[in-house]
Amino acid sequence: MAMTQWELYDAIVVGAGIQGCFTTYHFTKNKRKVLLLEQVMSAPSAQGCVGDSSCSHRRADGHIFSQTEHQAWSQKDLRILMMGRKEEAEFHTTLDTLSKHGVEHKYFDPEELKRCFPNIRLPPGHGGIWEPSGGALCADKALKALQDLIRQLGGVIHDGEKVTEIKPGFPVTVTTTTSTYQAKSLVITAGPWTNQLLLPLGIQLPLQTLRINVCYWKEKVPGTYGENFPCFVAVFPDLIPHHIYGLPAREYPGLVKICYHHGNKVDPDERDCPSASPDLTDVRILSGFVRDYFPGLQPQPAIMECCMYTNTPDDNFILDRHPKHANIVIGAGFSGHGFKLSPVVGKVLYELSSESTLSYDLTPFRIRRFKHQDKASL
Ligand SMILES: Cc1cc2nc3c(=O)[nH]c(=O)nc-3n(C[C@H](O)[C@H](O)[C@H](O)COP(=O)(O)OP(=O)(O)OC[C@H]3O[C@@H](n4cnc5c(N)ncnc54)[C@H](O)[C@@H]3O)c2cc1C
């Protein structure tokens, strides 16, 4: 094992997913010396992956999320449709949040929705919120562009180096499968593997890793749900327990991506082992949804891929310092909706790590909110 004694980094970031990359980017932008370590070769959304696209829409709860998404991405395709009943709390709150923050949107009553989107057939009484500034992000391309930018700005990325040991202190010492490094601070953005790294550091967060089946559905008539079709989120709590979301046919020609916002618990190291999650309830729910509401699609998935969500009990992120080691910062639990906010997450993790003034109130994201949870060992 080689250790270059004189190389003290300002920060080491573990995990080159979108959150680790944006954190590293903020270090390089602020002229700090930073090393990004990734266990697999060429990281593009490989692990808790999002594939080629990810939707960006505003969450109904409307705190930091709605304030920050405008700042998060400047380029994306436009249009998103949230479908549901106006009386539903989440639907209602989303309308209020959009109005409160002055985000352009339009409510479609059930009749208008039917006229505008004849290829969607909804349950009686269901309308839609049309938001022209929502849309799809090209996740792999975004990650690749960001890694190129980090390198241009002088950041160092080591792919294929798994972090095997972290010795807290000042400096913090990080050992990987090939070398040992030291830094003034450490940021852990290891997605589903976060608790594995935290165990020797004396804490376990209440994170649940879910295997998500990413399904693509074939158009009966090519082009029916193509480029002009919006991204959508279906919120039908009376009929389906979790959200269903979809993106127009673009990753695979003629195949629309429609997924269930939930999955089965999985060990992150067994994600690709089908026997780890033999339960296909989610796919059955999706098949029923497609059959009933998207009559122009074949009701069996043509392609099924998988990736992972790392969920917290309240679905809010964890953005905080380690309770005992202040120079170790954790960004975790993005609960299936972290991609769109990654530019802001990276900024906040940088601020926490460099002891800069925080741009946002992080109370909803602090670890201490879980101190009474069974699974938390803080
Ligand atoms: C199917 C799917 C759809 C999604 N859709 C959306 C969406 O529409 N909108 C949205 O905003 N978000 C979406 N998300 C969520 C979003 O993709 C995640 O929130 C985000 O990717 C989490 O990024 P991350 O960097 O925290 O984790 P990851 O992408 O999992 O990255 C963590 C990295 O850490 C590395 N690592 C772990 N342990 C070690 C170690 N010991 N040493 C070195 N490296 C290590 C891993 O290899 C991995 O590359 C979706 C996610 C999925 C799975």
From TrEMBL:
Keyword Metal-binding among UniProt keywords: no
Keywords per UniProt: FAD, Flavoprotein, Oxidoreductase
Every FAD dependent oxidoreductase domain range: 10-352
Keyword Calcium: no
Pfam families: DAO
One GO biological process term: L-lysine catabolic process to acetyl-CoA via L-pipecolate
Cofactor (UniProt): FAD
GO MF annotations in UniProt: flavin adenine dinucleotide binding; L-pipecolate oxidase activity; sarcosine oxidase activity
GO-annotated cellular components: peroxisome
Top-rank lineage group of the source organism: Eukaryota
Family: Belongs to the MSOX/MTOX family.
Protein name: Pipecolic acid and sarcosine oxidase
Phylogenetic lineage: Eukaryota, Metazoa, Chordata, Craniata, Vertebrata
Gene designation per UniProt: PIPOX
